[in-house]
Write a structure and sequence with these properties.
globular; mainly beta; single chain
Length: 294
C-alpha cells in the first residue's frame, strides 16, 4: 500500500496533513531525482499514482517533494528542495505558515516544477529564500490570502506569480486571491518579474496585491497582467470546447466574463528586461481591471 496515505497528485516524498504546530527544520536536502522522470513524462499510467512508481508516471501525477494539507501554524526553516518530478512545495488548506531560509533548485527546463504553490491558504510569510525552478518561482493560486513574500532571490523560473486564477481555468469556476504583498525580491533572469494571470470565462477576483521594491536583472518581461491566460490543452474532455471557444484572436472580443483585478500596486521596480517592459491585458467587460497603480 501507499506508505504516504496520499491520493493522486497530492502525493509527495514528505506529506504533512491535519496537523497543528509542525516544524520542519535543518540543513539537509530533499532530492527528488526528477531527471529520471522528466525524460519521458508521458509514460502509461501504472498501478498507482504515487512516489513509488516514479519511473512510470503520467505528467498529471508527478509527485512533489513536500505537501502540507489541512494544517495550521506550520513552519519551515532551512532545508534544500532539489529536482522534484513535480512541484517543490505545495500548501493546500493551510492556516498560518512561515517558510524561511530555504533553497529551491531545479533546472530551467524541468517541466511543471513550481517552487511554491498555494491553494486555500490564509496567512503565509515567506522570507530569506532562494528559488530556481522550471516553472513559477512562486504561484499564489485559488483562495490564497494574507501573504507576505519578502527578501528573497529568484533565479530562473517564471517569476512572482498570482494565479492562474481559477486554478486550471474550468468554465464557470469562481476564483479569488487577496491581500498579497511581494517586496524586496531580486529576480535574476526569470522569464517574468511581476506576473498576474487569470482564466477567461470564469468569475471571481484578485484584490489588493502589492509588488514593491523589486530588482530585475535581464528578466524576460518585467510586468505581465494577463486576463486571457488560455491553455486549452489543460482542459480535456467535455470542458475543452468551452475553453477553446475563448482562445485565440476572438478571446478579447467575445469572452468578457473574467476574474476581476481590483487594487494592483506596482511600486519601485527597477532593472532590465530582455524582451519587453510589460504587457497589460484586461477584459473590456464589467469585470476588468480597476485601481491599478504603477
Amino acid at each position: 500500500s501507499d506508505p504516504l496515505g496520499a491520493v493522486g497528485n497530492n502525493t509527495a516524498l514528505l506529506r504533512i496533513a491535519a496537523t497543528t504546530g509542525v516544524q520542519v527544520t535543518g540543513q539537509g536536502t530533499l532530492y527528488g531525482y526528477g531527471e529520471n522522470y522528466w525524460i519521458d513524462p508521458s509514460r502509461p499510467f501504472p498501478a498507482g499514482c504515487d512516489w513509488w512508481h516514479i519511473t512510470a508516471l503520467p505528467a498529471s501525477c508527478a509527485p512533489a517533494l513536500l505537501i502540507v494539507n489541512g494544517s495550521e501554524n506550520f513552519e519551515l526553516d532551512g532545508l534544500s528542495f532539489e529536482h522534484p518530478p513535480g512541484g517543490h512545495i505545495g500548501l493546500h488548506g493551510v492556516h498560518n505558515a512561515t517558510l524561511r531560509s530555504f533553497v529551491i533548485q531545479s533546472p530551467k527546463l524541468a517541466p511543471d516544477t513550481d517552487g511554491i504553490d498555494s491553494t486555500h491558504v490564509d496567512g503565509l510569510h515567506i522570507y530569506n529564500a532562494t528559488m530556481n525552478s522550471g516553472d513559477d518561482n512562486v504561484a499564489m493560486k485559488n483562495d490564497t490570502k494574507n501573504v507576505v513574500i519578502e527578501d528573497c532571490v529568484f533565479g530562473h523560473g517564471h517569476g512572482a506569480s498570482i494565479g492562474s486564477i481559477p486554478m486550471d481555468g474550468f468554465r464557470g469556476w469562481f476564483g479569488l486571491a487577496s491581500n498579497i504583498t511581494m517586496r524586496r525580491v531580486l529576480m535574476n533572469r526569470t522569464d517574468f518579474g511581476v506576473r498576474v494571470k487569470t482564466w477567461q470565462n470564469a468569475t471571481g477576483y484578485i484584490k489588493d496585491v502589492v509588488y514593491q521594491d523589486l530588482t530585475l536583472i535581464d528578466v524576460g518581461t518585467a510586468i505581465e497582467v494577463n486576463a486571457f491566460y488560455c491553455q486549452p490543452t489543460y482542459c480535456p474532455g467535455p470542458l475543452k470546447p468551452a475553453v477553446d471557444s475563448c482562445c485565440g484572436a476572438k478571446a478579447m472580443a467575445d469572452c468578457t466574463q473574467n476574474v476581476q483585478i481590483d487594487g494592483l500596486r506596482i511600486e519601485r521596480v527597477t532593472g532590465s528586461a530582455a524582451n519587453k517592459a510589460g504587457s497589460v491585458q484586461c477584459s473590456s467587460g464589467k469585470f476588468g481591471c480597476k485601481n491599478v497603480v504603477m
